[in-house]
Amino acid sequence: LSSQPSAASKPAPQEPVRNKRYDPKKPHITETPLTKKNWYKHVNWLNLTLIVGIPIAGLIASAWTPLRWPTLIWSIAYYFATGLGITAGYHRLWAHTSYSASTPLKIFLAAVGGGAVEGSIRWWARDHRAHHRYTDTDKDPYSVRKGLLYSHFGWMVMKQNPKRIGRTDISDLNDDAVVVWQHKHYLKVVLFMGLIFPMLVSGLGWGDWLGGFIYGGILRIFFVQQATFCVNSLAHWLGDQPFDDRNSPRDHVITALVTLGEGYHNFHHEFPSDYRNAIEWHQYDPTKWSIWAWKQMGLAYDLKQFRSNEIEKGRLQQQQKKLDQKRTKLDWGVPLDALPVMEWDDYVDQCQNGRGLVAVAGVVHDVTDFINDHPGGKAMIKSGVGKDATAMFNGGVYNHSNAAHNLLSTMRIGVIRGGMEVEIWKRANNDGKGQMIVKD
Amino acid sequence: LSSQPSAASKPAPQEPVRNKRYDPKKPHITETPLTKKNWYKHVNWLNLTLIVGIPIAGLIASAWTPLRWPTLIWSIAYYFATGLGITAGYHRLWAHTSYSASTPLKIFLAAVGGGAVEGSIRWWARDHRAHHRYTDTDKDPYSVRKGLLYSHFGWMVMKQNPKRIGRTDISDLNDDAVVVWQHKHYLKVVLFMGLIFPMLVSGLGWGDWLGGFIYGGILRIFFVQQATFCVNSLAHWLGDQPFDDRNSPRDHVITALVTLGEGYHNFHHEFPSDYRNAIEWHQYDPTKWSIWAWKQMGLAYDLKQFRSNEIEKGRLQQQQKKLDQKRTKLDWGVPLDALPVMEWDDYVDQCQNGRGLVAVAGVVHDVTDFINDHPGGKAMIKSGVGKDATAMFNGGVYNHSNAAHNLLSTMRIGVIRGGMEVEIWKRANNDGKGQMIVKD
Ligand code: HEM
Ligand code: HEM
Ligand SMILES: [Fe+2]
Ligand SMILES: [Fe+2]
Ligand SMILES: [Fe+2]
Ligand SMILES: [Fe+2]
Fold it and tell me: Which of A374, A394, A440 for mutating ligand 1's site (highest number of atoms within 8 Å of CB)?
């Protein structure tokens, strides 16, 4: 294979030139608004046939085709094999180079990946790199911002403007003989691996030629396609965002179950060159398990993995961000530097005139409405009114809980000029954010 | 009832004087170490009999006593009623005054609470206030620090030194006629509500006198005791600490199920005067539901509740604390102010001598070992070596993720003297803590 220097690897290969009639000088159809008259020109009829038409035909045909046990088992097994071709091959090996594979493994993955009928490695990985580099922007080939259905398969069924999609470097793929060969002979690969091979196995194996074609071929293709399309739709729509919530990727076990483990997509977009999608042993990631098994067999090597220190840093920053958002929504009391300054004598005077004020750590609090509710009793809190209650509040009488400190800070009305001021001021820097409890 | 000014309400009532032979001048038995010779003096035989002896006798007797359906149903119903006497009465009403009750409700709660055989309201609430005020210290009557079994019932089965237990203010209880009456007539209340009443119902109702005594009386007491004891043991041992982890109280649904809803104990210790234990509608807290129902019936009023702002502040601070602990365990790279200062020319020289250094935002990073692993390819990262790569790294070529920024900061080796220094220095205050991503 590697002795086949393909033509495709030579010209500057940034632009996809799959459609030979494409002329960059003429305005592309997507630059014309969709109307009642021209809508059919916007549709990619070939893809529509492959993705929707043939499966429907297959479904109809299946009504007359009995499903035999060996064919069912074989179809499911081949479903997993071709699915892995996409997830372990197209995606983790070629698009992300998250590990290296020996030539036999590469050929296997290029073959079964072709059997999933989702385009050549070269085309798929180029688009996928653009998806990562320009996630959620107009340059993202399957941006979920254009709708869930669009990200699922609308982007294939409707014509795309090749100029719109972000450019990415695929020089490494153009140097990979297996990729180049598969791209060049793509139609043959698809026909053979997608339909003929599953039919051959079923026909030569147990004589079920038609079942092999309908179930192992057409319907299996449909299921594998829909499952892997979920990585672009469901994985950008359903679940949590433990690492970064600025973009759409999400983690969810349902997506993982559907996509052979590609469901930890928030992690994946943050650490795309990690060969894993699920980092916990108990999470479902058969693609990772397969790569790991190939490594034990000497077929895969250089499995890339981010240090857990880096992963935990990302998780922590996202948690911090969430916490900071929550913090700004809560009432932490008037910030200390926004409080009026009071004289001590003024404070005492006001208390003698019946106001329920308590000075703690240089800050005056109006507890009038709280005296009757004080969990430690009316008498206790009244004994602090008009006095410096710092010590009583902080353990002299009762070492109040965090909750009590928080409550107290919402009752602030002033700062006392003088002695205690300096102490509280020093600690005030961290306040108003609620991050440290200002023990006032 | 309220016309009965009880003797007990007059003398300074801080000290429990339930044992008439107790003389504060003589050394208390607990001040003598436990030995083989004196161990029986350490045991509180009355409590041991009540809590362990009688239930065992009841269990044996039950072998000869057929359990009839109406008796079983009545025993379970009475179990809930007497349990509520403790949780809604003794605990939330009297120990914590988390709501107010009309006299009929008070009498009901004092009666069924007495039927649970856990001491008088006055004695129970005094100890419980000490438990909250001195949680986990030696002054805590049932500190879990002395062992799970001790906190469960060891503290009752072994004699206690009354001097050890923290003092609390119970003047409000001494002013409560129902409390005072129940304390004065405690033995009569216990005998009637604990044994005679359940037997009467069962005997007069469906002729099952013995079953009413054994199942509705003795065994029901045993189950109610063990269940409510769990508030002191299980609730300080099993579960999460969403509000404060400095002390032992914990939240767990199992504890809640066992204790009629007293299982959200971390919340409860932080907000003891809240009439709720569970704050979410879907959490199990039948005690809260009962209090709420009594309010609808006009029997309870002034239900106290902390503002959700205060509760969320507590939760947030605890989360922040956990996050800060995690943060210190991660490697955030050498803090900026601990880095050596380099000249620009020195940086360029070293790169020309083959070192893979990249300057981003005035900080020099050693990426030598990373060049081959760079997810954007060798060429990309090499193009930054020996240059000011700030712009390329931050979007000029590729707007790197958080993960890439984090990784970069672990590669720091120096700061460049001059131009960019000021900018990065300003933002450096927040760094090393990892709280803000220093976009360098
Ligand atoms: C000035 C404003 C005050 C506020 C906002 C306040 C708040 C609270 C709160 C929320 C509690 C419930 C337990 C806890 O969360 O720690 C409490 C309990 C208590 N407070 Fe205060 N308090 C104040 C002043 C005082 C003062 C001045 C004293 C004593 C002179 C005092 C003595 C007590 C005692 C003894 C308890 C324990 C109650 C118990 O659990 O038995 N408090 N306080
Ligand atoms: C100086 C230290 C560098 C580090 C630590 C670093 C790190 C990374 C990491 C972790 C990624 C994976 C995607 C991501 O997490 O964002 C990445 C991708 C990338 N980096 Fe860098 N990078 C560095 C320098 C550079 C430089 C100097 C350039 C360009 C001149 C560059 C260009 C790119 C590109 C284009 C990608 C996108 C790869 C793709 O998804 O196709 N990087 N970098
Ligand atoms: Fe994605
Ligand atoms: Fe990806
Ligand atoms: Fe407790
Ligand atoms: Fe309590």
Answer: A374
B323-332 as b/e: b if 16+ CB within 10 A: bbebbeebeb
Nearest to A437 among B272, B317, B403 (CB): B317
- For residue B255, give the ligand nearest its CA: 5
Whether residue B12 has pLDDT greater than 70: no
| CB-CB contact of A176 with A125 (8 Å) | no
Q: For chain B, give the mean pLDDT.
A: 87
Tell me the residue type at B182.
Q
Residue A399: CB partners within 8 Å, gap ≥ 6? Answer: none
| A406 vs B contacts (CB less than 8 Å) | 310, 313-314, 317
The answer, yes or no, to whether any atom of ligand 2 lies below 6 A from the CB of A131, is no
Q: In terms of Cα–Cα distance, which of A249, A247, A279, A242 is closest to A261?
A: A279
**Which residue did the predictor score with more confidence, B322 or B399?**
B322
Chain A nearest-CA residue for B432? A313
Residue pairs spanning A and B at CB distance below 8 A: 113
- For residue B409, CA distances in Å to A316, B331, B403, B421 come to 16, 9, 10, 16
Q: How far does the centroid of ligand 4 lie from the alpha carbon of residue B258, in Å?
A: 48
pLDDT band at A21 (very low <50, low <70, confident <90, very high): low
Please name the member of B310, B317, B330 whose beta carbon is closest to the beta carbon of A313: B330
Rounded to 5 degrees, what are φ and ψ at A360?
-130, 125
Convert the pLDDT of each residue in A40-51 to its tens digit.
888 888 888 888
For the segment B302-320, the average pLDDT, to the nearest whole number, is 94
Mutate to test the pocket of ligand 2, among B381, B382, B387 (most ligand atoms within 8 A of CB): B381
Which pTM does this prediction carry? Answer: 0.80
Kindly state the percentage of chain B with pLDDT values over 70.
Answer: 89
Q: What is the pLDDT of residues A94-125, one digit of tens each?
A: 999 999 999 999 999 999 999 999 999 999 99
Give tens-digit pLDDT for A371-429: 988 888 888 899 999 999 998 999 888 889 889 999 999 999 999 887 454 344 444 44
Q: What is the pLDDT of residues B106-165, one digit of tens each?
A: 999 999 999 999 999 999 999 999 999 999 988 998 998 999 999 998 888 888 887 888
Residue B305 CA to its chain's centroid (Å) = 17
What is the mean pLDDT of the segment spanning A354-369?
93
Which residues partner with A300 through β-bridges? A101
- CB contact (8 A) between residue A403 and residue B314: yes
Identity of the residue in B304, B380, B434 whose CB atom sits nearest the CB atom of A313: B434
Residue nearest to atom 42 of ligand 1 (CA): A381
Ligand 1 centroid vs A394 CA: distance in angstroms?
10
Q: What is the pLDDT of residue B433?
A: 46
DSSP-assigned letters across all residues of B189-234: HIIIIIIIHHHHHHHHHHS-HHHIIIIIIIIHHHHHHHHHHTTTTG
Residue-level pLDDT at A315: 94
Give A6's DSSP letter: -
Give the number of the ligand closest to the Cα of residue B249.
5
Nearest residue of chain B to residue A330 (CA atoms): B309
Mean pLDDT, residues A280-307 = 96
**Which protein residue's CA is at the shortest distance from atom 23 of ligand 1?**
A381
| Strands B363-366, B412-416: pairing kind | antiparallel
Which residue out of A364, A393, A399 has the highest number of ligand 1 atoms within 8 Å of its CB and is therefore the one to mutate?
A: A393
B391 lines ligand 2 (CB under 6 A): no
Dihedral class, residue B173 (left if φ above 0, else alpha if ψ from -120 to 50, else beta)? alpha
Calpha distance B271→B107 (Å, rounded): 26
pLDDT tens digits for B369-391? 999 888 888 888 999 999 999 98
* Positive or negative torsion for Cα B320, B323, B327, B329: positive
